[in-house]
Design a protein that fits this description.
By secondary structure, this protein is of the alpha+beta class. The protein has helices at about 30-45, 50-70; strands at about 1-5, 15-30, 75-90, 90-104.
Amino acid sequence: MILVNTNDVPRKRIVEVYGLVKGNTIQAKHLGKDIMAGLKTLVGGEIKEYTEMLPQARKIALKRMVDEAEGMGVNAIVNVRFATSSVMQGAAALLAYGTAVKVE
């Protein structure tokens, strides 16, 4: 599966557009890590517990998006984007989305 954050794939021609594909996840750290992160906000610095959580969430959301696209029979996703939001204290939602296309 070709994934790009541009409108087209270099050296390829889009022959069919299938539409929006997406994958999402909501991730949370356990209470102990959340307490440590809360304490870190008092003294400043990087909150590593959450820094580590984001790549995991991105990987899960991307896989779900690719699985949806593969189910459509496409071979590329263009305009790949990510959106995040907080759904509650200590939990974040991550959405990966793009346009499923067939290229040749």
